[in-house]
Amino acid sequence: MVSAVLYALTGQHPFLVAFFVFFAAATADTWASELGILSRGKPRSTLNLKPVEKGISGWVSLAGFAASFAGALIIASLVFVGEPSRALQFWRPVLIGVFMGSLVDSILGATLQAQYRCTETGRLVERPISGQLKNQLVKGLLWMNNDLVNFLSILIVTVVVSLWFTTTQG
Fold first, then answer.
1. Is 55 left (phi over 0), alpha (psi -120 to 50) or beta?
2. Which of 17, 34, 68, 85 has an alpha carbon 20 to 30 Å from 57's alpha carbon atom?
């Protein structure tokens, strides 16, 4: 929202790019998570490409990547509505931002996000409590949940891509 307001006030294109990158990365992450879980294949770790359980943070699947790309394309296509005369110039940074966002999100999820051993099932989960039972932290930082990983990854790529756009356009 800040980037949209700044673009409205200044007319500076890096703010418009930031706006689209932010929403494209958020959409891509949501589509990757929600549709990637439906993949029949075994997901792979972002860090070492070894197979992992479904539902583990930091994993990727071909279906999730395809869903991520589809979500990003839909948001990126809105660039043509928002700024049709410069849409092709903005499309590349938006798609690069989404790809970077997916990688940063997966890496943060695999390395820093809290993951717990479920007391009831023994499976790895992202929740500190299952039912009435406390789960055991086995990996990551206690305070680093999925919402924070999403926020940080999207913020990081939005800033990086906007700065990159600024330096390559001027």
1. left
2. 17
Angle of helix 146-169 versus helix 87-111 axis, rounded to 10: 140
In tens, the pLDDT along 140-158 reads 999 999 999 999 998 998 8
Domain tally, the chain: 1
- The amino acid that residue 24 corresponds to is A
Mean pLDDT for 74-89 is: 71
Give the integer Cα–Cα distance in Å for 11 and 88: 18
Each residue's pLDDT tens digit, 102-123: 888 888 988 999 999 999 888 8
Q: Which of 161, 6, 31, 15 is nearest to 92 (CA)?
A: 161
Name the strand (E) or helix (H) holding 134.
Answer: strand 133-134
Q: Is residue 119 part of a domain?
A: no
pTM of the full structure: 0.82
**Residue 142 to residue 144: CA distance in whole angstroms:** 6
